[in-house]
Design brief:
The protein has 126 residues and is α/β, with parallel strands linked by helices. It is built from two helices and eight strands. Helix content is 18%, strand content 28%. The chain has two domains: 48 residues, Signal recognition particle alu RNA binding heterodimer, srp9/1 (2-Layer Sandwich), CATH 3.30.720.120; 49 residues, Signal recognition particle alu RNA binding heterodimer, srp9/1 (2-Layer Sandwich). The model has no long low-confidence stretch (mean pLDDT 94).
């Protein structure tokens, strides 16, 4: 049996290009125009890993995390050197900081929302 590899990680959204551009700014990755179109946009991992993809879902609803009304279905964790560096990068890319879970105030991660409301974490390595 052959080994399996991850082909892409896809995120549903109302505006694939806009969200790909946001994550491109955050991660420093480029859109792979050959693999992208109106309904699907891919960011190429410069280290050769699986791309991050954004798929059109015209019925996408913003997560209301931490409220469970519209739950997050998944989230990305992004490794950064320090929480301050992560915060600066997230805000500069266009993210909004979300409330830190009460039981995680001293944790080495901070929670943000991308422009379409998907939560993601900036996780400090130090």
């Amino acid at each position: 049996m052959s080994a399996l590899t991850l082909a892409a990680y896809a995120i549903d959204c109302a505006d694939p290009r806009r969200l790909a551009e946001f994550y491109g700014r955050l991660l420093g990755w480029q859109i792979d125009e050959e693999e992208s179109g109106d309904r699907w946009v891919e960011l190429a991992d410069p280290s050769g890993g699986a791309p991050l993809a954004f798929q059109l879902d015209p019925h996408h609803k913003r997560s209301t995390w931490p409220s469970p009304e519209v739950p997050q279905m998944a989230h990305l964790d992004v490794r950064v050197g320090t929480l301050d560096e992560g915060h600066e990068r997230a805000i500069a890319a266009g993210a909004v900081q979300l409330p830190q879970p009460a039981d995680q105030r001293d944790a080495r991660f901070r929670v943000y929302a991308d422009p379409e409301g998907h939560p993601f974490c900036m996780c400090a390595s130090q």
